[in-house]
Amino acid sequence: MDFIRKNGAGLLLCLIIAIPAWFAGQAVPVIGGPVFAILAGMIITLILREKEPFTPGINYTSKKILQAAVVFLGFGMNLTEILAKGKQSLPIIVSTIATSLIIAFILYKALKLRTNNAILVGVGSSICGGSAIAATAPVIDASDEEVAQSISVIFLFNVAAALIFPALGAALGLSNGGFGLFAGTAINDTSSVTAAATAWDGIHGSNTLEAAAIVKMTRTLAIIPITLALAIWRGRKEKNKAGSTFSLKRSFPFFVLFFVLASVITTVFRLPAEVTAPLKELSKFLIVMAMAAIGLNTNIIKLVKTGAKPIFTGFCCWLGISLVSLGMQHILGIW
């Protein structure tokens, strides 16, 4: 009862925002529910006269619910199937992830970006958009404003990729398999990968959607080593600041361990789609709900004023990933 009394109002507000945002995302998948939820949250927080009763529940949703969403995401990942079908794309995936992280690091130094902004944009661009940001944000203790800004940057280039890539792939003479690899490695978010692959299939009468989705799921596995590496980096950074002993136990993101455990359960017990599909949808809905909370904790005016550097970083990461994806295909003789 104490939990409900403390967090109930904020949880309910986030839920009320998440439900229409979820359906809006279903209707316009290239934008997606998380973006609708963040925008709605930012607008509502401008007109809320008294936010204090909602604050504990909003903060709980933006932290704990977000971590729960990442855990449930693991039930959608059969590791055996993903690695068996996606191993051809591994050299390209590794190259594009490395490219994005290097570009983000260089621009972090050159533009004097916030550390967390650089990490979230680099990881979101290279792995799986909003899901990667959702997994990484708690590990590096990113603020809701930093998460909202990074999600907005990723969204911008998701839409651009979904609209541009099918025509670009045709102009470059990509095969159906080549475009599946291109879409799966160079587009950030699953919904935008789906949109681009569906548009390609409609034009060419092919079936690249499944291949692109498998490549995208293979990329998602990179969440595990990236978050663990960031946890160790942050722990060592805090140790150097405080002069204390580094503790892996204290720094370890245990929700990522539960994500791995969910993936292992799905793989070992070969959970059928009837079981995993609802859990995957629950994960997506919880992410939308968490993004509503993040929007409620974000000042949209400040976000716009400080957005130029993260947007430029996102553009450079996106361009670098696209060029490396195409270049690696050429080197490997796929294109």
Automatic annotation (TrEMBL):
Signal peptide span: none
Subcellular localization: Cell membrane
Topology within the bilayer: Multi-pass membrane protein
Keywords assigned: Cell membrane, Membrane, Transmembrane, Transmembrane helix
Segments traversing the membrane: 7-25, 31-49, 65-84, 90-111, 118-140, 152-172, 179-200, 212-233, 254-273, 285-304, 311-332
Any Gene Ontology CC annotation: plasma membrane
InterPro entries noted in UniProt: UPF0324_pro
Family affiliation: Belongs to the UPF0324 family.
Protein name (record): YeiH family protein
Species this chain originates from: Candidatus Mediterraneibacter quadrami
